[in-house]
Amino acid sequence: MYSTIYSLSNEYIKLPVVIKVQAKQSKVLGIINGRLKIAIAATPVDGKANKELIRFISKLFDLTKQAVILNQGVTSSFKLLYLPFKAQNKLDHVLSQFKINIDNLE
Questions:
Q1: Can you give the three-state secondary structure of 10-31, one letter per residue?
Q2: Domain range spanning residue 18?
Q3: Which of 19, 33, 48, 56 is the residue whose CA sits 20 to 30 A from 95?
């Protein structure tokens, strides 16, 4: 349904995200340039932001922390996460909350 945001491989959902660190609380901010934008309540020091991102995503999609794989972007704000297929319905639900109806913009 939201294939412009994520893609499916043989084994995983590939979810591109961009993070904003040092937020007051971790939360989904929306969709920007084909990526899920997430505020992270941690500093980008010693992997703290990456750990908080994994904790937040695992809680958001009812996954174990071990099921969330940070595939790319360890030192960047642009990251690629791999999630198990069982997260797809919840992912679609989260993304639907941020879908923009183009017809309403005209």
A1: CCCEEEEEEEECCCCCCEEEEE
A2: 7-86
A3: 48
